[in-house]
Amino acid sequence: MTMDKTSALVGEILEEQVELTLGELCRACQVPAERVVELVEEGIVDPSGPNPARWRFRGMSVQRVRCALRLEQDLGVNVAGAALALDLMEELERMRIRLRGLG
Predict the structure, then answer these.
(1) What is the DSSP string of the chain?
(2) Domain segments of the chain: what residues?
(3) Of 30, 52, 58, 77, which has the highest C-beta tally within 10 A?
(4) pLDDT tens track for 8-55
(5) Residue 59, class by beta-carbon neighbours within 10 Å (0-12 exposed, 13-18 middle, 19+ buried)?
(6) Mean pLDDT of all residues in the chain?
(7) Secondary structure of 36-58 in the HEC alphabet?
(8) C-alpha to C-alpha distance for 46 and 39, rounded to whole angstroms
(9) Can you name the CATH fold of 16-102?
(10) Are 77 and 85 in contact (CB under 8 A)?
(11) Which sign does the torsion angle of CA 18, 21, 23, 29 carry?
């Protein structure tokens, strides 16, 4: 039985403690470094380190970059809009967690 690309399930689990270099993040998200730099400048991901050659990204950065790219591609939002949407989605998730704790 063969599987076409649309029916394949691919997943990655990255722990928060995992640190990625700029190159590793680019490979994981299949984007050029310039694109990641743009996302850093907009605040979508926040690396540690003094410059791109020494940047380290948390594992969660992969999810944020991929989500921002999907928002841009699927909904046509710009980078600033993607940053705002990501922040709002995270705030909504925090609120849901708090509500579950109250119930």
Answers:
(1) ----GGG--------TT-EE-HHHHHHHHT--HHHHHHHHHTTSS--BSSSGGG-BEETHHHHHHHHHHHHHHHH---HHHHHHHHHHHHHHHHHHHHHHHH-
(2) 16-102
(3) 58
(4) 445 555 566 789 999 999 999 999 999 999 999 999 999 999 999 999
(5) middle
(6) 87
(7) HHHHHHCCCCCCECCCHHHCEEE
(8) 9
(9) Multidrug-efflux Transporter Regulator; Chain: A; Domain 2 (1.10.1660)
(10) yes
(11) positive
Map tokens 């605040």 to a residue. Answer: 43
CA distance 16 to 93: 17
Segment 45-70 shows an average pLDDT of 94
Both tokens of residue 101? 């704790």
